[in-house]
Amino acid sequence: MSQANQSGEYVDVPPSNVEAPDAHGKFSLNEDWAATAVGLVILGLCLLQVIPDIKGLFL
Amino acid sequence: MATTNTNEPIVHEDAQEQPQGSPAWGFAGFVLVLVLAWVVQVLTTNLPDWTEGTWFGQVSKSIEFPVYAIILGFAFNGILSLLGIRDRMSGGFRTEFFIKIGLVLLGAGVNVTVILDMGLPAVLQALLLIAVVFFFTWWFAGLIGLEPHLRALLASALSICGVSAAVAAAGAVHAKKEQLAYVAGLVIVFALPAIFLLPWLADLMGLSPIVTGAWIGGNIDTTAAVTAAGAVAGDEVLQYASIVKMIQNALIGFVAVALSIYFTLRVDRPAGVDAMKVTRSGWGEVWSRFPKFVLGFIAASLVVSMLAAAFPAALEDGAWLDNGMSAAKTLQTVFFTLAFVSIGLEFRFGALRDAGWKPVLVFFAGTIVNLLAGLALSSLLFGVLFP
Predict the structure, then answer these.
(1) CA nearest neighbour of B337 among B30, B26, B34
(2) Does residue B8 carry a pLDDT above 50?
(3) Are B369 and B133 in contact (CB under 8 A)?
(4) What is the predicted ipTM?
(5) Burial of A37 (0-12, 13-18, 19+ CB in 10 A)
(6) Which of B104, B142, B304 sits opposite A2 (nearest CB)?
(7) Which of B21, B23, B109, B255 makes a 20 to 30 Å CA pair with B124?
(8) How far is A6 from chain B (nearest CA, A)?
């Protein structure tokens, strides 16, 4: 159960104009599915030799 | 009024909207992340040679890429903040998106039998650890008088999967955006030292790779930081830690539903609410909140494991499957680097101001309980009962 402190008020974060972490569509269901699809497509292209190993170029 | 529909970023009605940057600014942010990731790889590869013979030469040989990535991310966070353009570019700093793509690619290097072998102990560990850490944090936060919505966010973030759990919990209980930003900031502040501390402690205690991975995966809150700690500890630990963390992530839907029902019926209870209706509509959230990239990880593991079983010769050096897996592993490292750079860039110093020491004390106490309970459970489950 929730309870207030002795003064009857809760400790809370004060209002501010800070941006929420889920702005810009971050943490959305679409982002979750998109990441899954992009990861699987990249893997498929790697296995089909369409995407070469870029070790040495990027790394 | 609280509801159970949590797909949208939900904030309290008194929240103020922050002006967001245009897509062009977001793209500029993404380009910056790419450039910094390239610099990270240049430093990781060349710094040992450049500093050979100096005091830093030996040190640089042991520094892994997450260290450079996080440091560069924080450095540019400060620079962009001073220039006043960080928030406009933040649409391009997508830690979660990059880490999820990297984890799907990681699945290609994990034999599906490893996932099956770890499944039962990992589920048991996740259930026990979530229960212990959630209820301890909830109780302790109530004891010192934290606001109930803030308690829910802190308990969820600590016990399940950090920022993404806090986002899910914020939607479920209709928390304020300031509370969500604050908890997300705390998660990162506590996760950063853990990325380096846990691998070091595990080495000091002589823990096996699987127990180390289970401890890291069960303890560090946010998935990106778990991956960074795993990368610091080594490839084998990275695989175990990721599997344990993903199983823990998969349980967020159940916690979000429970919180939604509790807050609707007990904390924010409106007149005339139908308890059965709230409960029924909540179950859709279990699937809605399920992290879909876990399915991608399993699919990648399954496909490559089946190909390896069907064409064993293709795994030889230079054969097509070996080449394909090498290419995927390189890109996995690229996406992990993008994610680690973004951790530093996304961090919001302003979110942590003015809330006093009590929420920090709660997070610290919960982290200690998480560390100890996690060590005991991972040692028991992965070291003794299911070695």
Answers:
(1) B34
(2) no
(3) yes
(4) 0.81
(5) middle
(6) B142
(7) B109
(8) 8
